[in-house]
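Lab notebook, bench 4. The sequencing result for the construct came back, and we need a structural model before the next group meeting so we can plan mutations. Quick request posted to the team channel:

Model the 3D structure of this chain.
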Amino acid sequence: MEMNWEYFEHGPVENHGERIYVTINKRGNFFLNRRAVEALGRPDLVVLMYDRRRSTVGIAAATERNPGAFRLKRKELNGHGGRVLYASNFCRNFAICPDDTLRFTAAEVDKTGVLVLDLNEVKSVKRI
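Done. Here's the predicted structure in C-alpha cell form:
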C-alpha cells in the first residue's frame, strides 16, 4: 500500500508563558500575559494608540506624566501572572467591538517598544 504523507510543519503549540499572548474580550478588556508585560518593560501604566487604516492597536509603556495613561491591573490566570487593561472607552471610541474573546495571533513588540496588535490577525478563543 502506497502512502501519501503530508508533513505537519507548524510544530507543537508553545506554552502561553513562553510567548507573547494577548486577548481582547467583548467588554473591551485586554489581557496581557507575563511575557507581553515583560516585553513592554514591566510598566504599571500604558498608553493606547490606534491605526485606523491598518485596524491595529498599539500599546506602549507610559508614566504618570502621560495624559490618558491606563493602569495595568494584576491578574492571575492558571498560576501565570498577567495584567488586564480595562479599555472599554478606547474600544468604543474606535468602534472596536469583538463578538467574543479574540487572541491576537501575531502580537509582537516592535523596535520602538510598541506592542502591535493587528485586529486582522486574530482567532476566537473558545472555552470548552
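The longest strand covers residues 45-51.
Will bring this to the meeting.
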